[in-house]
Amino acid sequence: MRKIIIAGNWKMYKTIKDGQELVVALRRDLYQIENIDIVVCPPFTLLAYLADALETSNIKIGAQNVYWQEEGAFTGEVSSKMLLDVGCSYVIIGHSERRQFFGETNETVNKKIKAALKNGLIPIICVGETLVEREAGETFKVLEDHVRNGLVDISTDDALKIIIAYEPVWAIGTGRTASPQQAQEAHKYIRGLLVKIFNEDVASQIRIQYGGSVKPENTEELMKQPDVDGALVGGASLKADSFTEIVKKAGEVVK
Length: 255
Ligand code: 13P
Prior knowledge:
This protein is an alpha/beta fold and 255 residues long.
């Protein structure tokens, strides 16, 4: 049984005060939820404050990026050790916005995954095709490229700790969600790749989240899909009401 994991990617939104207000509301509304792993991923500037606000709660914290070196003259970067130090348990790696705007490649993704795992952070590894790639019939090819090359030289022991997020770029921030069938098809394909890269047993334990215009209204149908094990939520994670509802709806899904 794979436990459903719902994570909120706040992207570059919220001041310290706004973030604190949001997590106070989430903590109040979600304290009884035990069957879902809940994560919030705010910008770096909020991490220390939210770690305080969420101490001893059932909501964990993740960062949105990490550098692979432990320390050094790398102006503007933050290491896994620093993220652990500030209270993170998770880190998003290879988000399409980082691939698109900040030169992230499968190679840098792979280095970041290894650094995160070495330091005990759980990487949430994002993969997914653009609209042009989907329309050209290249979805599986892109997924194979992202998954195989992102996971080069990851041991089976480490593979058990990773989370993959399938985020079709055309569904991110567009209001155009992948249908449950499209999501299931991609997730099943990704799990098949994990069988080939690792083995059946490991692949059956790795959680694969869906991301791209997840809202309270589409959560249930998406989470019901056999290979969809959670959601990486952008816009709808910025408000307590919608994120709470997504977590609660996911918590009601019986597979
Ligand atoms: P939206 O939920 O706003 O489409 O964003 C998805 C996303 O990019 C999460 O990482």
